[in-house]
Amino acid sequence: MHEDRFGNLWFGTYGGGVSRYDGKTFANFTTENGLANDIIYGITEDNAGYLWFSTYGGGVSRYDGKAFVNFTTNQGLAKNNIRCIYEDRSGVLWFGTEGGGLSRYNGESFTSYALEQGLASTNVWSITEDNNGNLWIGTDQGGVSCLSRNTSSWEQGNFTNYMTLQGLASDVILCSKKDRSGNIWFGTEQDGASLFDGKSFTNYTEEQGISSNSVWSICEDKKGNIWFGTDGGGASCFNGKTFTNYGVKEGLGSSSVWSVAEDSAGAIWFGTEGGGVSR
Q1: How many CB atoms lie within 10 A of CB 19?
Q2: Three-state SS for 3?
Q3: Nearest 5°: CA angle at 272, between 270 and 275?
Q4: Exposed/middle/buried for 264, CB within 10 Å: 0-12, 13-18, 19+?
Q5: Which of 238, 269, 275, 237 is CA-nearest to residue 255?
Q6: pLDDT in tens, 88-143
Q7: φ/ψ of residue 105, rounded to 5
Q8: Alpha helix (H) residue ranges in 32-167
Q9: Could you give the residue ranges of the DSSP H alpha helices within the chain?
Q10: Any long-range contacts for 190-196 (C-beta under 8 Å, 24+ apart)?
């Protein structure tokens, strides 16, 4: 789910391609319109205004408002199963793949990072940049890999890995987000959320009030509240002290929330499994 620079909301679906909502009506885009695949895992808008869609099996699609251009292993991607996309402060695009590790695109060519370069796992589910420009890569079974922002690390790969031994709640990371204070939040598959303040991890589970220990998405709103989309527990809002939980009883379309985003008007949107979109 993503709001573009024109205020349109884009929703990626599992099998139905992409839907664009202009505030009144929906327009749908599928492989028939040039999209690489109809299973969409992520949407990112780069600083040039292009929209990028990560697909399962078709690589990535770039949309300029008129047509799609697709990138696959033929162009240098590590794998065609793309779980996430992130644009860093330099305008470089990073792609997390399933089975191929991390791919970097500088606008001309791809460079890939895998176990040989020190990445903890070749299954990359999330990418986030901290205030110093370091990249935090959430993986499946490998915890988090941090790529330091210096020339040698960028080119060759120089990862520092964090797992449960270092205090992370789980080694399976599904999502991540930097908050306004510079902390990095990580959502795990079964063990709640971890907060890294640059020195140590603080973990939040159902015992602390989060609605479910399976955290699929994280969003910070304009007030500084942290929202968590969960599997089976709906959405949780953390104000820094306590959690407030929202489920089907409160009007949410489903108790399984895949994505959470705030639009420019301050409305919170929830992409759900089987229940459409809730606002």
Answers
A1: 18
A2: strand
A3: 115
A4: exposed
A5: 275
A6: 999 999 999 999 999 999 999 999 999 999 999 999 999 999 999 999 999 999 99
A7: -125, 120
A8: 151-156
A9: 151-156
A10: 190/214, 193/169, 193/218, 193/228, 194/167, 194/168, 194/169, 194/170, 196/136, 196/162
